[in-house]
Amino acid sequence: MSAGRGANARRAWHARSARPRRVDKAEPCDRGPNKEGFTLVELLMVVAIIGLAAGAVVLSVPDPRPSVAEDAERFAARLSRAREEAVLSNRPVAVEATPAGYGFSVFDGAEWSALDEGPFGPETWTAGTTVDPSNPPMRIVFDPTGVADPAALTLTRDRQSRTIAVDGAGEVRLNG
């Protein structure tokens, strides 16, 4: 009799364990020891978003250097001012443009001396600017009547160029 009860008990136990259990609460999956944090996909998405934002910022920030047009306009204005200085002071004024920059000088009757007062201080071209012609350095001399020998100077940077021309009457023009 005892053997029959044992067999029945085993059958009952197998029947209970083979039946699907009803779960009232969802049990978390066992991911091993402490699996908190971000997935690789989440981290890659964050890196991609930061990259896009950085690219937008870099593209929207303007070049801090003045453009070739601004350099050319400044040089043309200073040439015009040098012509006016020659007429008003009744003495020749020269402008010498080199690949590095430009400067002004005045003739006092005996020798040329640097003119660096007011707007006539020496200037350097913005980095990356090339000057044509560059060898020998261009020298434009305005006589006391404002007349000068015709000359042209071309500034080029980043595939942009501007030409500053002085005609025989000493008039300064900006082309390009």
Q: Approximately how much beta-strand content do the residues carry?
A: 15-25%
Compute the gyration radius: what is it?
Answer: 42 Å
Q: Termini, distance in Å?
A: 116 Å
Structural class category: alpha+beta
Major sheet attributes: 5 strands, antiparallel
Write the H/E string, N to C: HHHEEEEEEEEE
Identify the overall geometry.
rod-shaped
Number of strands: 9
Number of helices: 3
Overall pLDDT metric: 84
Unreliably modeled segments: none
Share of residues in helices: 25-40%
Transmembrane segments: 40-61
Biased composition (Basic and acidic residues): 21-32
Keywords: Cell inner membrane, Cell membrane, Membrane, Methylation, Transmembrane, Transmembrane helix
Biased composition (Basic residues): 11-20
Give your account of this protein's structure.
This protein is α+β, with helices and mostly antiparallel strands. 34% of the residues lie in helices and 24% in strands. It has 3 helices and 9 strands. Strands 1, 2, 3, 4 and 6 form a 5-stranded antiparallel beta sheet that branches. The protein has a 4-stranded antiparallel beta sheet with strand order 5-7-8-9, covered by helices on one side. It is rod-shaped, with a radius of gyration of 42 Å. Residues 1-32 are annotated as: Disordered.
